[in-house]
Design goal:
Elements: H1 21-32, E1 38-39, E2 44-48, E3 54-58, E4 62-64, E5 69-73, H2 78-94, E6 100-103, H3 105-127
Parallel strand pairs: 5-6
Antiparallel strand pairs: 1-4, 2-3, 4-5
Length: 128
């Protein structure tokens, strides 16, 4: 799935190729509210093998440069969410200066609801 118009794009200036529809919709929300974003721009190494080579890593979905914050969206099964929480704990141990916000399925659903209400309110104001 390609990036929304006006979006910051993916790594190395390439158009963002989202792994899931929910990521594309979140990017569209960022665009709607004028929030600058980058898609998966950084991979953080979380573990190394005996030879010192990266063995585990985490790449948050979005970086919001104006807020110096990463956003990870998860709308997945609970077992995968649990693994993602473990990765976030490890990231915070190794990189305490990095700010990451995890959006769960309910957070994402609330954002979509607010977007629909905002769009409906704007449409009603134009017709009044």
């Amino acid at each position: 799935m390609a990036r929304p118009a006006g979006a910051a794009g993916g790594r190395r200036g390439e158009p963002a190729r989202f792994a899931h529809e929910s990521e594309a919709r979140l990017a569209a929300l960022f665009d709607f509210y004028g929030i600058a974003w980058e898609y998966e721009p950084v991979e953080f190494v979380l573990g190394w093998d005996a030879g010192g080579r990266p063995a585990a890593a985490f790449r948050p979905d979005f970086y919001l440069p104006d807020h110096a914050m990463f956003v990870e969206l998860t709308t997945l099964r609970q077992e995968l969410v649990t693994r993602k929480h473990a990765k976030l704990r490890r990231l915070r141990e190794l990189y305490p200066e990095i700010q990451v916000r995890l959006l769960h399925r309910r957070d994402y659903a609330n954002l979509l609801l607010k977007e629909r209400l905002a769009v409906a309110g704007a449409a009603a104001a134009r017709t009044a």
